[in-house]
Automatic annotation (TrEMBL):
This is Putative transporter. Its main location: membrane. It is a multi-pass membrane protein. One of its GO terms (biological process) is potassium ion transport. It comes from the Bacteria. Belongs to the AAE transporter (TC 2.A.81) family. It holds the Pfam family Asp-Al_Ex. GO terms for cellular component: plasma membrane. It is found in: Cell membrane.
């Protein structure tokens, strides 16, 4: 009677579609449960899906060959695209500060790992595809593995090689993956002890270091007491004292309780109170030139004028500058700051608005209501998924990844592939707010779902496929030796990164830990470090190096395959 039920859960070499889906869902659901189990402060997280997939594959469960390839590639595309959209804005802005040094350290680690991998390939006589699998697992880099597998398939097609000509790098990847996860965590702990890090001191030093480059937009009240500015317009004062990147959102004359939003032509009188919006260093500079800090409470009154947060959801308002919208002259409403992907940006007239931007505006309630009609402010629209933008962006990424780059002596053209292509597309789209009808806004919940869903699909497909013959391959290739070789790839570049970061570039320990996790694209290590250090500071340097490191790892994996696969 229940034969159909037993059939669904019985391993078979040629599974039907329903059986394949059951295996896929089992790997993901059980893997997610296992990933939540903590060993001290450490948990496997989503990577547990791969190990459950390996176990199911070892038991004989499998999936339809075409379906498993689709699931693997589609999952990888979703994952890297979500990463690109999420970190794109901070990635480009970081190059104005220390991002160049951070990325140089991260990319240097990648290429050193590639050199060590090639040496292992030569000296240990390990096939290059297995060596690349060792490398990808030892640094927990999933996109690199995906790029290697895609390149091997491309070579097989171009040269008409049998499907079993190359070994599956996913087996070596699975063997060394735990070394990558726990190795970096071990080095974080050891480096803290070896370098004798005082976390409280490191935090103070970082705050002092970032005091002048703090990007947070704040507001402060100022009492005008400098006789040199009496009777002059705000525009004249800013020009004479060479003050930039400052917005005066409110003004109140001495002896009154009337608050209004001044234009640049508004005249400043004796003992006026101004509300200044800018970065703290620019506010301090302005107040030093104009007067002193004020404690006036009337200027914060919301009786006649109010502050409101509105979101850009009208397509007619996107890709227009604040000067083009001209909200102040038309509606007497002033935009003081713009929040984009978690970043606060001062509302300069030349700032171009993107779909999904959040504006902080100040003005009359009725006027703000009119502005909302132009800007949009539809929370419902922002919550609804825009599949045109999402899948349009993915098409853009697949096209970029499919462009053949002809390099002499290589058996097939070099391609960015389905990992680097969507990542580059997402970075480009997030940097410019969109391309045509494709925009970059995806709400945070959707981004996290897309990333986790994508990586679950990829890990499940890789694990299930690699699980077949995993034990035999481990014994045949002396898996303990592969783990031994993987330790070289994990520890040597990372140890040099720690020494150079600390003793050459004098980097803060919090930043260094973020670079360590980002260089190995290891979210598990990042999660551990934020709890271990009780700080979110490592997240910033992790996001800074992640995109360029990921692209570098993809290219290194592809080049090793293209140059030395035979």
């Amino acid at each position: 009677m229940f034969e159909w039920f037993r059939f669904l859960f019985t391993p078979t070499d040629e599974p039907e579609m329903t059986q394949s889906l059951i295996v896929l869902f089992m790997a993901i659901s059980v893997g997610f449960f296992v990933g939540k189990i903590k060993f001290g402060n450490i948990s496997l997280g989503v990577s547990a899906v791969m190990f459950v997939g390996l176990f199911l594959g070892h038991l004989g469960f499998t999936m339809n060959s075409e379906l498993i390839q689709f699931v693997r590639e589609f999952g990888l595309i979703l994952f890297v695209y979500g990463i690109g959209i999420q970190v794109g804005p901070t990635f480009f802005s970081s190059f104005k500060k220390e991002g160049l040094v951070f990325n140089a350290l991260g990319v240097g680690t990648v290429f050193l790992g590639g050199i060590i991998t090639y040496i292992i390939h030569l000296l240990a006589n390990i096939k290059i595809e297995n060596a690349v699998g060792l490398m990808s697992g030892s640094v927990t880099n999933t996109p690199g593995l995906g790029a290697a597998k895609s390149t091997l398939i491309e070579i097989q097609k171009q040269l008409n090689l049998p499907s079993d000509h190359f070994s599956d790098p996913a087996i070596a990847y699975a063997i060394t993956y735990p070394i990558g996860v726990f190795g970096i965590i071990l080095l974080i702990i050891l480096s803290k002890s070896f370098l004798k890090i005082d976390l409280a001191k490191e935090e103070v030093l970082l705050q002092e270091k970032n005091k002048d480059s703090e990007n947070k937009i704040v507001r402060q009240k100022c009492r005008v007491t400098n006789p040199e500015v009496f009777g002059k317009t705000i525009k004249q004062v800013l020009k004479e004292f060479n003050i930039k990147d400052v917005i005066i959102s409110r003004q109140k004359h001495s002896g009154t309780i009337v608050v209004y939003s001044p234009s640049l032509d508004a005249v400043i009188d004796t003992k006026d109170v101004l509300m200044v919006v800018a970065k703290q260093k620019d506010i301090t500079n302005f107040i030093d030139c104009v007067g002193k800090v004020s404690t006036d409470l009337f200027i914060e009154s919301e009786d006649d004028l109010t502050t409101k947060i509105i979101s850009v959801t009208q397509k007619t308002a996107t890709h227009k500058t604040l000067a083009q919208l001209d909200l102040y002259n038309q509606y007497d409403v002033k935009v003081t700051r713009v929040i984009r992907s978690g970043l606060e940006i001062l509302a300069q007239p030349s700032l171009e608005l993107f779909y999904g931007d959040t504006l902080m505006v100040f003005g009359n309630r009725q006027a703000i209501a009119e502005v909302e009609k132009i800007v949009g402010n539809s929370k419902k629209i922002l919550l609804e998924p825009d599949f045109l933008s999402l899948f349009g962006g993915l098409i853009f990424g697949v096209i970029i990844g499919s462009i053949p780059i002809m390099i002499p002596s290589l058996p097939v053209p070099l391609k960015l592939g389905l990992a680097a292509g969507p990542l580059l597309a997402a970075l480009f789209i997030s940097r410019y707010g969109g391309v045509g009808v494709i925009h970059s806004y995806i709400n945070n919940g959707a981004i996290h779902f897309m990333k986790d869903f994508g990586i679950c699909l990829f890990f499940a497909a890789v694990g299930i496929k690699a699980g077949h013959g995993f034990y035999d391959s481990f014994i045949e290739n002396n898996g303990w030796m592969w783990i031994y070789y993987g330790c070289y790839i994990t520890f040597i570049p990372l140890t040099l990164l720690v020494l150079i970061s600390r003793f050459v570039f004098k980097l803060n320990f919090y930043q260094m830990v973020g670079i360590m996790s980002g260089s190995y694209t290891d979210p598990a290590a990042l999660a551990f470090s934020t709890k271990y250090l009780d700080s979110d500071i490592p997240n910033q340097s992790y996001a800074t190096v992640y995109p360029l490191v990921t692209i570098s790892r993809i290219l290194v994996a592809q080049l090793l395959i293209l140059l030395f696969a035979s």
